[in-house]
Specification:
Elements (H helix, E strand, L loop, with lengths): L4 H23 L4 H11 L5 E5 L1 H16 L4 E4 L1 H4 L12 E5 L6 H4 L2 H6 L4 E5 L5 H5 L2 E4 L15 H21 L3 H7 L4 H7 L15 E2 L4 H10 L3 E5 L5 E6 H10 L19 E2 L4 H11 L3 E5 L5 E6 H6 L5
Parallel strand pairs: 1-2, 1-3, 3-4, 4-5, 6-7, 9-10
Antiparallel strand pairs: 7-8, 10-11
């Protein structure tokens, strides 16, 4: 029987309603047991080993990944692989998070005696408090639901949503308890946009060495124009100690050409901006981007700790790297 659009929309809304109601019920179960689980992990000297079969395993992998990316060392153990050798990854200083909707998953139960022999504490995430898994566990976190969103109450839907949310709650509580900062997060995600924003320094992107444009304060505009032509439209002016005296930009050059055609022999000090914006090489690249956006400039001189010119940073390079304020 073909469904019309209204029926499809109704089904979609029903699924969201059921899952949101189960999440609300989960919120009311965040209690002392949750706090005990968080403290158990905080006191763990090893890793958090997450394990589960089927859909619980898929959710477990995501929970383990979230823990690892937020400062809690974690790994996933497939129960079936665990009984064939992978159990060797579990050490006595670890904590286990075992996920099973019923608490009776056979592959998972086969691991429990080994966990007990290793004296590794188990946090059970299951919907049944009278299950075998809970009897082996040090802490039980209830992931039970009144109904699945599946109309046959078979496919894990609301229960997997609840389990994932509970894993997120653990990860964030641990993150805040450890004082895990955005900079810490960036260290674990150096390739992402946040990592670049929080870790990449001006020195990582600046033009330097043979590509560094500059002229000395005694020189004429012919030299500055050649530097600007070959090295991307900016020419810092320095003394012989490489200390910044001023900057000449293409805008300065255009304004000069409007006044006179004879520009080559004009002293650079007559044209330069004597109060230029600059950035330090150890500053975050995101700060350079913010400054250039603020003052509507496309390049800035880069200075070292002794205020000597060591580079030039370009807005285009920052944007190409995905750096923003």
């Amino acid at each position: 029987m073909e469904m019309n659009n209204d029926e499809i929309i109704r089904i979609g809304k029903k699924v969201i309603r059921i899952e949101s109601e189960e999440l609300h019920a989960l919120e009311n179960r965040i209690d002392e047991r949750f706090a005990q689980a968080v403290r158990l992990i905080l006191n763990c000297k090893g890793r958090v080993i997450v394990t589960g079969m089927g859909k619980s395993g898929a959710i477990g992998r995501k929970i383990s990944s979230t823990l690892a990316s937020t400062g809690t060392t974690s790994a996933f153990l497939h129960p079936a692989e665990g009984i064939h050798g992978d159990l060797g990854m579990v050490h006595k200083d670890d904590v286990i998070i075992a996920i099973s909707k019923s608490g009776e998953t056979s592959e998972l139960l086969n691991l429990l005696p080994s966990f007990r022999r290793l004296d590794v504490p188990v946090i059970a995430m299951t919907g049944r408090g009278d299950s075998t898994l809970v009897r082996y566990a040090k802490v039980w976190l209830d992931i039970g639901v009144k109904e699945e969103a599946c109309p046959n109450d078979l496919a894990p839907t609301a229960s997997t949503t609840v389990t994932l949310a509970l894993g997120d709650a653990l990860a964030v509580a641990l993150l805040e308890a450890r004082g895990f900062s955005a900079e810490d997060f960036a260290l674990l995600h150096p390739g992402g946009s946040l990592g670049k924003k929080l870790l990449m320094r001006v020195a990582d992107l600046m033009e330097s060495g043979e590509n560094l444009p500059y002229c000395f304060k005694e020189e004429r505009m012919q030299k500055a124009i050649m530097e600007m032509a070959h090295k991307r439209g900016i020419c810092p002016v320095v003394d012989h100690g490489m200390h910044l005296i001023g900057v000449i930009t293409t805008g300065d050059l255009n304004r000069l050409i409007e006044k006179t055609e004879h520009i080559f022999h004009i002293p650079v000090t007559d044209v330069m901006n004597a109060n230029p914006k600059f950035i330090n090489k150890d500053d975050l690249a995101a700060i350079a981007y913010k400054e250039m956006e603020k003052f509507r400039i496309i390049a800035m001189p880069v200075l070292d700790e002794e205020q000597r010119l060591v580079g030039v940073i370009h807005l285009h390079d920052l944007m190409q790297e995905g750096i923003s304020a």
